[in-house]
Design a protein that fits this description.
The chain is an alpha/beta fold and about 375 residues long. The protein has 2 domains: about 140 residues, Alpha-Beta Complex (Aspartate Aminotransferase, domain 1), CATH 3.90.1150.10; about 230 residues, Aspartate Aminotransferase, domain 2 (3-Layer(aba) Sandwich). It contains 14 helices and 13 strands. The strands form 3 sheets. It has a 7-stranded mixed sheet, with helices on both faces. Strand 3, helix 6 and strand 4 form a beta-alpha-beta unit. Helix 3 packs antiparallel against helix 11, helix 4 packs parallel to helix 11 and helix 5 packs across helix 10. The longest helix has 21 residues. It is globular, with a radius of gyration of 21 Å. The termini are far apart.
Length: about 375
């Protein structure tokens, strides 16, 4: 059977592939600690589970408009105005099966094959995978400590810039001043932007600001993505939405129609319940305590350089002092210690590793981190 060239040259996401390997090992009876991905140990908010259960007992679950039920989009507009400073109409909002679908549709609608897009490194792997599927040219730029004018002015002309705020995997939260500089650059260059704000609620140290909080977001061509997956511990619910200029959202609906149409009525009920649940507080407090525990355990390790994340479910660690191939480091760690991590190579940065810290109980978290530290120490002392 002939497979198309555009998919034959693509590869599964390294992040999901590693998690799949761990699942298979567990099915085979092996005990594995999985830090390669972030799956919350919390359940979805009670209001989400209650509302969806109530709806599931109804006799009829109708189709809705392709972009989501009008009432839901109106409610999400209330959320955007109150929490993000984005004044958007229902026609400028589209409900999707998670942020990945919104990302693909926005990139499809805003670019043509051969266009150049800019992605900061380290990156969420879906940005590059989607770009390749769409035939785009990707310019990778190292994520700066501060997003300043000189950094942006050094960038080549591009159709689109993708920003992850809060950032996965570093945990950086961009300041209002940084976003103002970016807004000015977008206005001067005519480059559009997709801003992934999936971690907007997982804040430890800073206040989150939306780039589309600017009054000029429509003219600038900014699409912002939101997801309930991490902020509300709803990874398996596939619940997300996007806000953008009406003509872009209309184009996204045109693409969504023949692919999936609207998300299920149950997903839409979950979406509304989640974004109005006001429940992430206890979840964030737990994650902050876990982050602090990891910093206490990892900061003294001589072969690690680690910066405390300001947001998110991951910790990003520079292990280049070991002088080893980080893919091989991850493979050996999984084989010998039964601990899974994500090598930075999968996110564009060899010499680093990413570890999710929200999945297991604290005892398992301590055990897994201790195994990584001991393994690295062994490699350091043996010269790799």
């Amino acid at each position: 059977m002939r497979i198309s060239k555009r998919i034959a040259s693509a590869s599964p996401l390294a992040t999901t592939a590693m998690h799949g390997r761990v699942d298979q090992m567990k099915l085979n009876g092996e005990e594995v600690i999985d830090f390669s991905i972030a799956i919350s140990h919390f359940a979805a908010p009670e209001s989400v589970r209650r509302d969806v259960a109530d709806m599931a007992l109804r006799q009829v679950l109708p189709y809705t408009a392709v972009g989501g039920a009008h009432g839901l989009r109106a409610r999400l507009g209330e959320k955007l105005l109150a929490e993000n400073g984005i004044d958007a109409s229902p026609a400028e909002i589209i409900v999707t099966n998670g942020a990945k679908q919104a990302l693909y549709e926005a990139m499809y609608a805003m670019t043509d094959p051969g266009d150049t897009i800019i992605v900061f490194r380290p990156y969420w792997p879906a940005y590059l995978a989607t770009s390749r599927l769409l035939g785009l040219e990707v310019v990778l730029v190292d994520l700066p400590d501060v997003l300043a004018r000189d950094v942006l002015d050094a960038l080549p002309p591009a159709r689109l810039l993708i920003l992850n705020n809060p950032h996965n995997p570093t945990g950086k939260v961009f300041t209002r001043d940084e976003l103002d500089v970016l807004e000015d650059w977008l206005a001067r260059t005519g480059c559009g932007a997709i801003v992934d704000e999936s971690y907007e609620k997982l804040l430890f140290d800073r206040t989150h600001h939306s780039l589309s909080g600017s009054a000029h977001w429509r003219k600038l061509g900014i699409v912002t993505l939101f997801s309930a997956s991490q902020s509300y511990a709803m990874m398996g619910w596939r619940c997300g939405f996007a806000v953008g200029p009406a003509e872009v959202v209309s184009a996204m609906e045109t693409l969504q129609g023949p692919i999936t149409a609207a998300p299920s009525a149950l997903t839409q009920a979950a979406c509304e319940a989640a974004f109005f649940s006001d429940e992430p507080g206890h979840l964030v407090a737990d994650y902050r305590a876990r982050r602090d525990l990891l910093m206490d355990m990892l900061s003294p390790v001589k072969w690690m350089k680690v910066r405390s994340p300001e947001s998110g479910p991951y910790i990003w660690v520079d292990v280049s002092a070991l002088g080893c191939d980080t893919v091989q480091f991850a493979e050996r760690l999984l084989a010998e210690k039964k601990v899974a991590i994500m090598p930075g190579d999968a996110l564009g940065m060899p010499g680093f590793i990413r570890m999710g810290f929200i999945s297991d109980d604290i005892a398992t978290l301590r055990k897994g981190i201790a195994a990584i530290v001991a393994f690295g120490k062994q490699m350091s002392e043996s010269g790799g």
